[in-house]
Design a protein that fits this description.
By secondary structure, the protein is of the alpha+beta class. It has helices at 25-28, 79-87, 109-124, 131-145, 153-160, 182-191, 204-215, 219-241, 244-259, 268-279, 305-313; strands at residues 5-16, 31-48, 53-57, 62-66, 93-99, 163-169, 172-177, 192-196, 282-287, 295-300, 317-319. Helix 2 crosses helix 4 (131-145).
């Protein structure tokens, strides 16, 4: 008999190192990512009900109904929900999800959804996996069950919460919490400006294209990935040292190398936003996640109000930034 269960998992800001957690780079050379969980959540709920299985994604306005999990179409709607129920089968119930993050935000919302689904489904089955098992199952849900290309930082940050330095050398992952000075973390939060530029145009095809270039020995892509990985180590040092100027500088340097990976990485809207933010005096900034749309975030030199006003003048949505020091949990 399954039990009702709910879980919420935070999304993240990737300060440096993103892309180096993506195979085959992460398998062959190993990657490093520094990221922090923020208080925007993906939620999953399991409600025992009438015979049959109903999947509902409230944020997408979509639903699927089938007799049981064996009838789910691997190539149909709601790929992540379907993959979750195939990975952790449950009986007759409704599985419903929602997300605070806008679609295609680049904030790792699909990874957070993976984590929330694993936690809620496991709980409904009477299971209590530890954090490492939750993260690993969530990675398997997306990469294997759903067949979606990508890295592993999102699932680990959503599971563990807080500020993390993650080192990946597939299949291994080292999770190292970063203990920031409390006053510095508060000031970093106050000065952070998170802007949603519009739905991301990024796709698994772009990830495949970048990693194929790496496999083929493309010197530009390979060099960019090495530089991005090195910046993650520098970012960890800057955060622990409470160096705001250093954090801003590394954000921008990471973004420059990120754009070297693919010609479509920076959209016209993103370029306009970056120009306006620099004119408003930010210390630095970058795209959240893979790039090519979604969110960008910037570190203000002081009062963030002028930069926030500039972003809104461009029609951007400014999202709240609050550090989420705890990872996935019941809600």
């Amino acid at each position: 008999m399954i039990k009702p269960a709910r879980a919420a998992a935070p999304v993240r800001l990737d300060f440096a190192g993103g892309w180096t957690d993506v195979p085959p780079f992460s398998s062959l050379e190993g990657g490093t990512v520094v990221a922090a969980a923020i208080g925007l959540y993906a939620r999953a709920e399991v409600l025992p009900g009438e015979p049959g299985l109903r999947l509902v994604a409230h944020d997408l306005g979509a639903s699927v109904e089938v007799p049981d999990h064996s009838k789910l179409d691997r190539n149909g709607q709601l790929a992540l929900l379907s993959a979750g129920v195939r990975l952790l089968p449950v009986g007759a119930c409704t599985v419903q999800t929602d997300s605070d993050a806008p679609p295609g935000s680049g904030l790792g919302s699909s990874g957070a959804l993976d984590v929330a689904l694993v936690s809620a489904l496991a709980s409904s089955r009477g299971e209590s996996p530890g954090p490492r098992e939750v993260a690993d199952l969530a990675c398997r849900l997306e990469a294997v069950e759903a067949g979606i290309a990508g890295g592993r930082q999102d699932q680990f940050v959503s599971t563990f919460g807080g500020f993390l330095r993650l080192r990946f050398h597939d299949p291994f992952a080292d999770v190292h919490p970063l203990r920031l000075d409390r006053e510095f973390a508060s000031e970093l939060e106050r000065r952070m400006i998170l802007c949603y530029t519009g739905a991301s145009r990024f796709s698994g095809g772009t990830i495949t294209r970048v990693m194929r270039a790496y496999e083929n020995g493309d010197a530009t892509v390979t060099g960019a990935l090495h530089s991005i990985r090195d910046l993650a180590e520098r970012m960890a040092e800057a955060l622990l040292a409470g160096d705001l100027s250093g954090v801003g500088e590394i954000l921008s340097e990471n973004w420059r190398w990120q754009q070297a990976l693919d010609s479509a990485m920076c959209t016209p809207d993103m370029q306009n936003l970056e120009t306006r933010m620099r004119a408003a005096g930010v210390l630095g900034g970058k795209a959240a996640g893979s790039g090519a749309g979604g969110c960008m975030f910037f570190l203000a030199a002081g009062d963030p109000a002028p930069a926030i006003a500039a972003a809104r003048e461009l029609g951007m949505s400014v999202l709240p930034v609050r550090w989420a020091m705890e990872g996935v949990g019941p809600c």
